[in-house]
Amino acid sequence: MPRILIADDERALLEVCRRVVAGLGFEVDTAEDGKKAFEKVQAADGAYEIVVTDVKMPGLDGLEVAARVHKRYPKIDVILMTGAPDLSSAVEALKAGAYDYLVKPIDIDVLSACVNRCWEKRQIADALNVEKSLRRELEAAYQELHRAESAKDVLLSRAGHELRTPLAVLLGNLELGMGEEDAGSARDFFQKSVEAGVRLKGVINDLLAFSDIAQGRLVLRKAPTDLAALIRETAALCARVCEERKIRVEFEVQEGLPVLELDPDHVRLAVKHLLLNAALFNKEGGVIRVGAAREKGNVHLWFAYTGIGLDAEVVPKLFGSFYQAADVLTRRVGGLGLGLAIVKGIVEGHGGWVRAESAAAGSVFHVLFPVEGVKGG
């Protein structure tokens, strides 16, 4: 029930006003002077919808009450009652932030109409605010949808390029190899075809993994996993990229690291993307430090590399969905831009988390797997 406060030093009039306003369906409080009125407003922490107050009261007058309420609780409407209406009193009422003012002696019908009009105005204003809020939410949702649609178009375009390129290399080398009479030359062409096929398989696996993660269909087949060995094996698979960029990989893996209950294939995919990210965004001749250690109830992995640091505004987007992070990831080195989103999905699927931070000379990516994922831990 909406609350109204009425203040007047004439007790008889105060009681009449209370009964009239209560009859309109409001919860009514009263005060016999301005000081008590404002104290009640403060005690209610602005919970009143309307304050009706006489202008001429001992101590704190109605104009001062209206001014204080308007300043402290601008959402409360104030209606003033005066026995000496003139232009100057109307101006003073407006200056004090009053909604309206009534002339004494108070007409019951006029009081009822004024309070109802003020209450209807408040309801309309609230409805308009709700409408504005809904409109803003709708506009934000539309913008989000537009970004998602744009991202989908970009993804399809990039996916097409990333699929066509190795496929063209594969088919071209197969054709050349089949027409080559020299066995050694033919073997070279077929080897290039195999390499292109592996790259093509990697792109397809990334698309499938991202699709499963985005739709909540990621299935983990956990098994006892030697994480230290998995990291070294995956680093070996990424060795060619590092060699091409003359990047050195250093390991800081703690001895006796516990065996984890993980999905080795998915974790290998996540580690691969973290290593490739560290290599592609590294400087030529740079270093990647890969570490792993038991820390309290977690197994902590880190991938630190020299080279390109992370801008503060980029960090929150890195592990987001494609349309948030892809431009940041691909504008310089190409690719789908799904790698870190895949990493996030896989790590969180294991109950862990992944973070990124900019270092003095490069960046560091941290991965934590919880104790629950440690066999015998």
What descriptors fit this protein?
single chain; 377 residues; alpha/beta; 5-stranded mixed sheet; elongated; disordered C terminus
Concise structural overview:
The protein has 377 residues and is α/β, with parallel strands linked by helices.
Q: Report the average pLDDT across residues.
A: 85
Cα end-to-end separation: 58 Å
Low confidence ranges: 373-377
Strands across the major sheet, in which order?
2-1-3-4-5
Provide the helix percentage: 40-55%
Verbal overview:
The protein is of the alpha/beta class and 377 residues long. Helix content is 53%, strand content 19%. The protein is built from eleven helices and twelve strands. The chain has helices spanning 11-23, 34-43, 62-72, 87-95, 108-178, 183-214, 227-237, 239-244, 264-280, 322-330, 339-349; strands at 3-7, 27-31, 50-54, 77-82, 100-103, 223-225, 248-253, 260-262, 287-295, 298-305, 353-359, 362-370. The strands form three sheets. It has a five-stranded parallel β-sheet, with helices on both faces. A five-stranded mixed β-sheet has the order 7-9-10-12-11, with helices on one face. A hairpin with a 2-residue loop joins strand 11 and strand 12 (362-370). Helix 2 (34-43) packs parallel to helix 3, helix 5 packs antiparallel against helix 6 and helix 7 (227-237) packs across helix 9. The longest helix has 71 residues, at 108-178.
Secondary-structure map with pairings?
Blueprint: E1 3-7, H1 11-23, E2 27-31, H2 34-43, E3 50-54, H3 62-72, E4 77-82, H4 87-95, E5 100-103, H5 108-178, H6 183-214, E6 223-225, H7 227-237, H8 239-244, E7 248-253, E8 260-262, H9 264-280, E9 287-295, E10 298-305, H10 322-330, H11 339-349, E11 353-359, E12 362-370
